[in-house]
């Protein structure tokens, strides 16, 4: 039981830490675009790398957000009917619907790994004018998905605990996971 | 299995899981995977991963985090609050004045972005709390933001219009010109609705009591807070029109403007940047995961033979040319409930366009109807991306039901606009004919 | 009798002339000549897979057929750079056609693609040409240009002294209109016409930046192997005919389109001054050798190209 709690806490903490770190990429994207506009407009000297680098950062930024969002209940859902049920019933429903979550994320993980492996095997670059390596960003697909899957397992364990009144997770210890969502 | 039955199962399971409360992104992604397995086999899941990679590589989407970042910074600096206070002082005497002011800001925002999601999230952050704090009805506020936030694709620049031009072969310039009057028409109709409604039911959008409307001096002082937002608009719009940036790059100018505003308000520090970054990450990530799954979903639906089903369907429509046009609008409307607009375009336009042209209709006119219909699709329950984006930003006491209910009158207003454009096609065709 | 339906992912949007002229023709030919035993189901650009992903999907056998530009397969095909066009190499379209079909470059491409389970068939060879808002009358004019470009040509134009930047297709029209760029290349006349670029850029620049097999039809070897021998032969025959038919037809349509643009939109042909041309040839040739370094095959293709061009008296 203690191992389960430790796993849950560890995964959640990891996802939250990664999310905070990745969130700063938005500032980098802003700077690079601004730089490109400036160089092109003021010096008539556009670069070959700024837009592409921004694009790559954006890709990583977007795909790495999955686990962090789930840890914060940030993936939006429809509570129209769902909200009519009590917490235990909701948890039971979540256990059931998690089937679809895992079908999606595991399929994505499988082919994401496949795609990344292929890309890493030849240190894939973009073959653009700048020609940067793109394998690190492709590798972010399985990494981001794996983070999401891990957080999904944590969520499933929580739901099972709530639905079956198990002791390893008590929702009252985690007010931030109020199913109504978190105030941003 | 026929595509018709697959369609029912496809959309049926979508509805089931969404109403069971599974987040939208996972429903769209999961349903695509299941159906790809049955129609195409295990290997087809590669398509899901590949669609995600392609979506990550779409440069125009970079505007989403940047515009959201701009809004988050503005909201924290207090400039947004001051802007609404000024608006309240000046237009507070008018019932519904703030809602109409919000619409105007939405229209300006729409002229700065070519996409829809960023505007909804940004306006939901800035405008919603300001209106609620002044006693505006929840439904009214949500509806205004939902409808106005979607105008980004209707008022040029618009990625949707460019895509339509690419698929149909009409001129981009003419599409842009054609969108201007219909955009104004929809604004006027929506503003008229707000005025009428708030005069019939003053508690929905209360006027400021006369004693709080402030003296002329106070009003003039309050104008100071308008300067910074205007500066940002000039920076963004000016850089697009002046040939300095593309619409996507202009988002970075918006961020720069908001940083300047933060500096003027003496709020520019690490804590502000950090908090804005994290909030931006949550909202952009939410939008992007929905888009990842939505793109996989429309590719899956395409591969099931959606196009030939629609083709077969449309040839059986009674009622002559207008019957067919109306049927096309209904099909787009229904698809607009569940698919992303790019997917809808790729599925329907190759079928629709030859028919539209053979019936003697103007493809530019049809394009504008189509784009407005997409904008409506963004906000119609049960599936409208704007609804979900808004849900992602509102305080927890606002439920999906509130958001669903709020859009109904605004959807009706837009449908009235759509019908007017069908009856008076000149509203669409006048400007392109004049300018080109 | 067994019938086969192939999913075909295009990299052309539906309104592009090549969608109908290339894929439409291919579909018609295959379906008619196989008596309906082989059917093609066409998907417009981006429907199932984005252009950059189509080679992978065909290679894995998820799609039976697709169309691409060689540059989208750069990571797998070391010959892609030469196939998608070395700047200022050929001067006429027939030369590129001869290089592919008679001198054996097409066969080399086919061999390399076969290693990835893909049957490669160039759809056509054709020029890539720029449109600009102000005519280029001197080297100075050229070097002051801001041009929307992509891939290898972006590097080429940059090295030649212009300011080349990448702008996605969806924002190209607006960017050109508002003056973010002064010129762009999007195919040649037909491409520019389909993107409505002539509305805002009235000068069509010649000679071509490159002439190359920029459109390719790829077939999954897995799908090919499932066909009976006669249908396999049919596919190969039709693709071979397609190359000659489309190369010729495309040239014809280029001219017709340019004539239409001249008549209707007041477009003028801007022939580059000799000193600009000389400069571009010089910069271009320096870049060719880079492509030759990618593999032994690429080196072989490059030396074949060079000896061909010297035979023609260009080098
Ligand atoms: Na817009
Ligand atoms: Na909808």
UniProtKB/TrEMBL annotation, chain A:
Claim: Transferase is one of the keywords in the record? no
Q: Report if keyword Transport is assigned.
A: yes
Question: Per UniProt, what is the membrane topology?
Answer: Multi-pass membrane protein
Listed InterPro entries: DctQ, TRAP_DctQ
Q: Where in the cell is it found?
A: Cell inner membrane
Gene Ontology cellular-component annotations: plasma membrane
Every copy of the Tripartite ATP-independent periplasmic transporters DctQ component domain together lies at 29-160
Q: Which residues cross the membrane?
A: 20-41, 53-71, 91-113
- One GO MF term attached to the UniProt entry: transmembrane transporter activity
Q: Which Pfam families match?
A: DctQ
Which residues, if any, are the signal sequence?
none
User: Which keywords does the record carry?
Assistant: Cell inner membrane, Cell membrane, Membrane, Transmembrane, Transmembrane helix, Transport
Q: Which family does it belong to?
A: Belongs to the TRAP transporter small permease family.
Function of the molecule:
Part of the tripartite ATP-independent periplasmic (TRAP) transport system.
Q: How does it assemble?
A: The complex comprises the extracytoplasmic solute receptor protein and the two transmembrane proteins.
| This protein's name | TRAP transporter small permease protein
From TrEMBL, chain B:
Transmembrane spans: 7-40, 52-74, 86-111, 117-136, 148-170, 176-196, 226-244, 250-268, 280-302, 322-352, 364-383, 403-424
Q: Chief location of this protein?
A: membrane
Signal peptide residue numbers: none
What Gene Ontology terms describe where this protein resides (cellular component)? plasma membrane
| Pfam families with a match to the protein in the record | DctM (PF06808)
Lipid biosynthesis found in the keyword field: no
Keywords, A to Z? Cell inner membrane, Cell membrane, Membrane, Transmembrane, Transmembrane helix, Transport
Where, per UniProt, does this protein localize? Cell inner membrane
One of the entry's Gene Ontology molecular-function terms is:
transmembrane transporter activity
Q: Which InterPro entries match?
A: DctM (IPR010656), TRAP_DctM (IPR004681)
Give the record's subunit note: The complex comprises the extracytoplasmic solute receptor protein and the two transmembrane proteins.
Family under the similarity heading: Belongs to the TRAP transporter large permease family.
What the protein does comes down to: Part of the tripartite ATP-independent periplasmic (TRAP) transport system.
The protein's name in its UniProt record: TRAP transporter large permease protein
């Amino acid at each position: 039981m203690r191992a389960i709690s430790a796993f849950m806490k560890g995964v959640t903490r990891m996802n939250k830490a990664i999310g905070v770190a990745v969130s700063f990429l938005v500032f980098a994207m802003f700077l690079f675009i601004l730089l490109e506009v400036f160089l092109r407009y003021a010096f008539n000297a556009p670069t070959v790398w700024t837009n592409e680098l921004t694009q790559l950062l954006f890709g990583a930024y977007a795909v790495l957000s999955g686990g962090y969002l789930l840890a914060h209940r940030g993936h939006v859902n429809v509570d129209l009917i769902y909200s009519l049920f009590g917490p235990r019933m909701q948890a039971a429903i979540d256990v059931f619907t998690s089937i679809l979550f895992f079908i999606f994320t595991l399929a994505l993980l499988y082919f994401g790994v496949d795609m990344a492996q292929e890309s890493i095997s030849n240190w894939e670059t973009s073959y653009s004018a700048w020609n940067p390596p793109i394998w690190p960003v492709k590798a972010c697909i399985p990494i981001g998905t794996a983070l999401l899957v891990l957080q999904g397992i944590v969520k499933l364990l929580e739901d099972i605990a709530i639905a079956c009144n198990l002791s390893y997770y008590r929702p009252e210890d985690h007010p931030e996971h109020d199913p109504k969502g978190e105030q941003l | 299995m026929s595509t018709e039955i697959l369609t029912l199962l496809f959309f049926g399971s979508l509805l089931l899981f969404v109403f069971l409360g599974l987040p939208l992104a996972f429903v769209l992604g999961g349903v695509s995977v299941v159906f790809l397995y049955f129609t195409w086999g295990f290997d087809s899941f590669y398509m899901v991963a590949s669609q995600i990679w392609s979506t990550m590589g779409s440069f125009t989407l970079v505007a989403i985090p940047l515009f959201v970042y701009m809004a988050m910074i503005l909201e924290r600096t207090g400039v947004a609050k001051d802007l609404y206070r000024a608006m309240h002082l000046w237009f507070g005497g008018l019932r519904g004045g703030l809602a109409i002011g919000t619409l105007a800001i939405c229209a300006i925002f729409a002229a700065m972005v070519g996409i829809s999601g960023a505007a909804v999230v940004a306006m939901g952050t800035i405008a919603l709390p300001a209106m609620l704090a002044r006693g505006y009805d929840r439904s009214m506020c949500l509806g205004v933001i939902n409808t106005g936030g979607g105008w980004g694709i209707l008022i040029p620049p618009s990625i949707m219009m460019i895509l339509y031009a690419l698929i149909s072969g009409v001129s981009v310039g003419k599409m842009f010109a054609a969108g201007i009057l219909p955009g104004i028409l929809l604004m006027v109709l929506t503003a008229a609705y707000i005025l009428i409604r708030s005069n019939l039911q003053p508690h929905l959008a209360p006027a400021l009591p006369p004693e709080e409307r402030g003296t002329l001096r106070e009003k003039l002082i309050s104008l100071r807070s308008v300067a910074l937002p205007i500066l940002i608009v000039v920076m963004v719009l000016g850089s697009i029109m002046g040939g300095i940036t593309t619409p996507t790059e202009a988002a970075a100018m918006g961020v720069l403007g908001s940083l300047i505003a933060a500096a003027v308000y003496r709020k520019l520090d690490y804590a502000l940047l950090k908090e804005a970054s994290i909030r931006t990450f949550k909202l952009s990530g939410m939008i992007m995961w929905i888009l990842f799954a939505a793109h996989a979903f429309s590719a899956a639906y395409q591969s099931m033979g959606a196009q030939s089903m629609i083709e077969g369907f449309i040839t059986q429509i009674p009622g002559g040319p207008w019957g067919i046009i109306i049927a096309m609008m209904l099909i787009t409307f229904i698809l607009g409930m569940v698919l992303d607009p790019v997917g809808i375009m790729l599925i329907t336009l190759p079928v629709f366009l030859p028919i539209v042209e053979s019936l003697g209709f103007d493809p530019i006119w049809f394009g504008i109807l189509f784009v407005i219909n997409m904008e409506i699709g963004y906000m119609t329950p049960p599936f409208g991306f704007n609804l979900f984006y808004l849900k992602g930003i509102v305080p927890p006491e606002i439920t999906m039901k509130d958001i669903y209910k709020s859009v109904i009158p605004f959807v009706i207003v837009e449908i009235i606009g759509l019908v007017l454009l069908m009856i008076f096609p000149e509203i669409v065709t006048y400007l392109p004919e004049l300018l080109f | 009798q067994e019938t086969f339906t192939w999913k075909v992912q295009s990299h052309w949007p539906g309104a592009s002339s090549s969608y109908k002229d290339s894929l439409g023709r291919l579909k018609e030919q295959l379906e008619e000549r196989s008596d309906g035993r082989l059917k093609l189901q066409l998907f417009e650009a981006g429907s199932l897979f984005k252009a950059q992903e189509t080679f992978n999907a065909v290679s894995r056998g998820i799609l039976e057929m697709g169309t691409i530009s060689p540059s989208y397969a750069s990571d797998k095909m070391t010959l892609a750079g030469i196939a998608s066009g070395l700047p200022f190499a050929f001067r006429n379209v027939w030369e590129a056609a001869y290089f592919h079909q008679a001198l054996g470059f097409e066969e080399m491409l086919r061999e390399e693609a076969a290693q990835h389970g893909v049957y490669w068939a160039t759809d056509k060879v054709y020029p890539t040409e720029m449109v600009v808002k102000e005519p280029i009358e001197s080297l100075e004019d050229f070097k002051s240009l801001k041009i929307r470009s992509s891939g290898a040509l972006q590097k080429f134009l940059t090295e030649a002294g212009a300011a080349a930047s990448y702008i996605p297709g969806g924002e190209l029209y607006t960017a050109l209109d508002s003056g973010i760029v002064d010129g762009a290349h999007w195919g040649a006349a037909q491409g520019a016409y389909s993107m409505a670029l002539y509305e805002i850029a009235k000068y069509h620049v010649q000679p071509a930046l490159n002439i190359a097999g920029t459109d390719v039809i790829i077939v999954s070897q897995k799908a090919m192997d499932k066909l009976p021998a006669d249908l396999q032969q049919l596919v190969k025959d039709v693709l071979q005919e397609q190359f000659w038919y489309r190369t010729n037809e495309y040239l014809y349509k280029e001219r017709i389109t340019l004539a239409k643009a001249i008549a209707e939109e007041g477009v003028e042909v801007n022939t580059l001054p000799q000193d600009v041309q000389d400069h571009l040839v010089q910069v271009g040739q320096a870049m060719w050798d880079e492509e030759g370094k990618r593999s032994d095959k690429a080196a072989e293709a490059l030396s074949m190209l060079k000896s061909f061009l010297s035979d023609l008296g260009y080098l």
